[in-house]
Amino acid sequence: MAENQTLTIRFGIIGCADIARKVSRGIALAPNATVIAVASRDVEKARRFIAVNALPEGTVAHGSYEALLDDESVDAVYLPLPTSLHVRWAVAAAEKGKHVLLEKPTALCVADLDGILGACEANGVQFMDSTMWMHHPRTAKMKELLCNSDLFGQIRSINSIFTFSANQEFLKNDIRVKPDLDALGALGDVGWYCIRAILWAVDYELPKTAVALQGPVLNEVGVIMACGSSLIWEDGKVATFHCSFLANLTMELFVLGSKGTLHLGDFVIPYEESSAAFTVASDSGFKELVTGWNPLPSKHVVTTELPQETRMVREFARLVSSIKSSGSKPESSWPAITRKTQLVLDAVKASIDKGFEPVEIGS
């Protein structure tokens, strides 16, 4: 589509969660998107959100989610609601013809997610989850190197970690520790990223089996505060991940190949907004007398003019514009990736619930 045919996609934000502040900024910086409405069950809260985040003049504050979905000027919605509310409001949005950018974890289980994806497909609207790091140019550069068999060989193992040390206020009152709001806890919140990174590294080939690691930490109402799992493929590949609300901020990703290794320590949120680095080692060995490595790993730095959340919004808005302007069909790869992530997450949760038994991952 020619650039001058690209529409500016008009977003409504349903819910005023903290993450919505970051995404509203991302929308503001995107060249093809704008926020025109914010909804909260308390209209004054919506008005405060608009003011505090300096949203465009004329942004409408709605006192109910239904009112925003009835707003015919809204093209797409961003939903940062608690996971337990996703099915109701994502389906309602799709049925109103609104394209859906959905916060992760996208659902409590794959059956719920299938309800959301089915509604989006039936109504011809684009679906995308808000896993922002997928849209950083570093991600594409890393994939290019991973696909270089001369440099990297065959993938043998992947390890991912995402942890942060939550304060007592978070551990008592945040929605992510409440069984009626976000029952998946750390597995859904930070484990989602670990699972997505593993699947990304293997081109979304589903593992055969998940085995949760023993020793998960649950709070007093049974919500996961920390856990881990091993994932096993039929061809012998293995992966592990650890996610936690109880350990120092860490975002490690290692991909180990028969010839090379990829490593980065900030895979979800780069250390710096405008640039992001990773290292690659290939054909590694030792110097004479084993006094060091030869060759040394190479460092790659990828710069970007737009934050990764803005790049996500820009791509989502581009897809929506194509549907609205040219009658294109929604891009199916994004919901497919989301569903595979949910399938693995479900299997890990099932393994925890079954006393760390292996659980086969469905399709």
General description of the model:
- This protein has helices spanning about 20-30, 45-50, 65-70, 85-95, 110-120, 135-145, 150, 170-175, 185-190, 190-200, 310-325, 335-355; strands spanning about 10-15, 35-40, 60, 75-80, 100, 125-130, 155-165, 210, 215-220, 225-230, 240-245, 245-255, 260-265, 275-280, 300-305, 360.
- With about 375 residues, it is of the alpha/beta class.
- It has 2 domains: about 5-135 and about 325-330, 3-Layer(aba) Sandwich (Rossmann fold); about 135-305 and about 340-360, 2-Layer Sandwich (Dihydrodipicolinate Reductase, domain 2).
- Strands 7, 8, 9, 10, 11, 12, 13, 14, 15 and 16 form a 10-stranded mixed sheet that branches. Strands 3-2-1-4-5-6 form a 6-stranded parallel sheet, with helices on both faces.
- α1 (about 20-30) links the parallel β1 and β2 (about 35-40).
- It starts with 8 loop residues before the first strand and ends with a strand.
- The model has no long low-confidence stretch (mean pLDDT about 95).
- It is an enzyme of class 1 (oxidoreductase).
- Keywords: Oxidoreductase.
- Its EC number is 1.1.1.179.
Write the layout of secondary structure elements.
Layout: E1 9-14, H1 18-29, E2 33-39, H2 43-52, E3 60-62, H3 65-69, E4 76-79, H4 86-95, E5 99-102, H5 110-122, E6 127-129, H6 137-146, H7 149-152, E7 155-165, H8 168-173, H9 185-189, H10 191-201, E8 209-212, E9 217-218, E10 224-232, E11 238-244, E12 246-257, E13 260-264, E14 275-282, E15 298-303, H11 308-326, H12 333-353, E16 359-360
Parallel strand pairs: 1-2, 1-4, 2-3, 4-5, 5-6, 7-11
Antiparallel strand pairs: 7-12, 8-10, 8-16, 9-10, 10-11, 12-13, 13-14, 14-15
Helix pairs in contact: 1-11, 4-5, 5-12, 10-12
